[in-house]
Amino acid sequence: MKSMSSNIHQHLLLQSNSCKTRKSSSRIFAVAVEPHHNLMQNGAVRLAQKLSNLVHHHLETPIPNQLQYTDWNLIHKANEVTPVSSPKQNISSKWREIHGSTDYDSLLDPLHPWLRREIIKYGEFAQATYDAFDFDSFSEYCGSCRYNRHNFFDKVGLDNTGYNVSKYFYAMSHVDVPQWLERSHLVDTWSKDSNWMGFIAVSDDQESQRIGRRDIVVSWRGTVAPSEWYEDLQRKLMPVGDGEVKVELGFHHIYKSKSEFTRYNKSSASEQVMQEVKRLVNLYRSKGEEVSLTITGHSLGGALALLNAHEAAVSIPDLPINVVSFGAPRVGNVAFRDELHHLGVKTLRVVVKQDFVPRMPGVVLNESLKIFEEITGELDWVYTHVGAELRLCLNSSPYLKRGFNPAGYHHLETYLHLIDGYKSSKSSFRQNATRDVALVNKACGMLRQELRIPECWYQFEHKGLVRNSHGRWVKPSRDLEDIPSYHNEEESMPCYA
Asked: Which ranges carry the Fungal lipase-type domain (predicted)?
C-alpha cells in the first residue's frame, strides 16, 4: 500500500511538472466568498472595478487533455484506504522552538514535520469555528454556535485533539464595519446584537505531556468575504495606548465593542477572552505547571488574534505567546509590529501566494513605502505584517485546479491541504501527505474534476430541514443543551490537572 501511494503521487507530480502552461490575460474578480457565505453581487462588482485597475493577474492554466495519462482510478482506491492523519509525535523536547522561541529559524524551509502537524492542529481549530457556526440568516439562532462547548469537538469531528473547550466568547454584530458579522432576519432571535466568535480550550493531561506544557488555545472565527476587504479597510488606523502604535479601526471595534443593553456582550470579546485566559494561567501556574498561550484564526480571525496577543502580552508577564494565523490581513502599523516584537509575541503567518486578503489593507500603499522614510519620516498610517511567514503556492499541489478562483484561494481548507503537502520552497508536493483531499471542496470548488469530489459539499442533510409529525418540512428545534444560554457560558471548566 505504501508503494501504491508513492506511485500515485509520482504520477501526479510528473503530470504536474510536465504540463505546459500558458499565460492568460488579466481577469476581473468574479464572485468571491469565504466559507459558508453568499456574496452580495454589488460588492463583487465594486471590488472588480477597483482591484482590476490596481493589479494584473497572469494566471497559469493547464492545456486541455493533459490529464489523460494519470490513472485517477488508482488514486481513488488509494485515497479510500489511506489514513487521514499522521501519528502524533512527542514534541516536548522541542516545544519552545515549535512555539516560536527562535522565530522559526531553520524550521520553515524545509518545514519541520513536528511543526507541520502543530500548524495543522491549530488550523483545524480555526476551521471548527466555521463548521460549528450558524450562518443561516433565517434561523432564530443565526450568529450562534450550533453546539454546546461540552460536545463541541465531537460534533466537528475533532474528538482526538486532546483539548477541552473551556469557554465560548462573543462579539458585537452592529459594529461600524458593515456585513462583517451575521444578523438573523427574524425578529425573535437568540440575540440581536451578538455573534459567537470562537472558543478557548486547554490541553488535557495526555496532550500536555506530549507537547511539553499546558497549552491554552484561543481560536477566533473569521467572517469576511474576500470581496469586502477592499471596501471596508482603507487607511482607517486608530491609536492603541500611548505612542505611535496604531491598528485598523474595524478590527479594534469588533475586539473591544460592548453594550449594557445586550445579553452576551455586556463585556467585550476582549474582556471575555482575557478574563478566562488569566483564570486558566493562574490555575495551572498555581499547580506548578508550565503554561503557554496559542492564539489562532483565519482571515478576520487572524487579525483579531494579533490584537488578542498584544493585550495578553501586556497583561500577563512571562507568558509564552504564539500566534498562528492563516490568510490574515495586515493589522497595524510599523510601531504595532515593533511593540509586539518587544513584548516577545511570536507570530507565524501562513499565506497562499495567490490569496489577496493578506495584501489588505493597503493593496498599493503598504509597507513598501518605508523606503521613503528618510524623506517623509515614519509613515504611521502604513500597514505592515508581523512575524515569520510560511508562504505556499497553489501550483505546488497536483490535486488543485489551475484557473481563477479567489474564494478558493482564501478558503482555509485550501491552506490546510497545501500545508500538509509542503516540504520546502524547492520541493514538490510531498508523497506521504495524508490529510483528506476531499476537505478542500467543503465550501469551494478547487479540486480537479477527475477527483470526482462535488463542490461545496459540506452542508446539513436537507440543508437543515426535517419533517415534523404532520409531514411538513420545517426547521428543527435545537436540543436544549445546544441552545445559547448566558448561564451556561458562566460555568467554570472542570480541572484537568
From this structure: 217-363
Is residue 425 among the annotated active site residues?
no
At 224 the pLDDT is 74
Residue 46: per-residue pLDDT: 52
- pTM, to two decimals: 0.83
- In this structure, which long-range contacts are made by residues 148-155, counting pairs with CB atoms below 8 Å and at least 24 apart in sequence? 148/481, 148/482, 148/488, 149/199, 149/488, 150/481, 151/481, 152/128, 152/199, 153/128
Please answer whether residues 169 and 255 qualify as being in contact, where contact means their C-beta atoms are separated by less than 8 angstroms: no
CA 294 to chain centroid: 13
Cell numbers 509564552 correspond to: 320
SS3 219: strand
pLDDT of residue 452: 92
Q: Which domains does the chain have, with CATH numbers?
A: 25-58+83-392+460-489 (3.40.50.1820)
Residue ranges in the chain modelled with pLDDT below 50: 1-8, 10-41, 44-45, 47-69, 363-378, 496-497
Residue 299 annotated in active site: yes
In the set 9, 37, 410, 411, the catalytic residue is: 410
Catalytic residue, chosen from 131, 136, 232, 355, is: 355
Q: Are β-strands 321-326 and 346-352 bridged in parallel, bridged antiparallel, or unpaired?
A: parallel
What is the C-alpha to C-alpha distance for residues 423 and 112, in angstroms, rounded to an integer?
A: 8
Q: Is 410 a catalytic residue?
A: yes
| CA–CA gap between residue 255 and residue 232 (Å, rounded) | 16
**Annotated catalytic residue within 16, 268, 299, 397:** 299
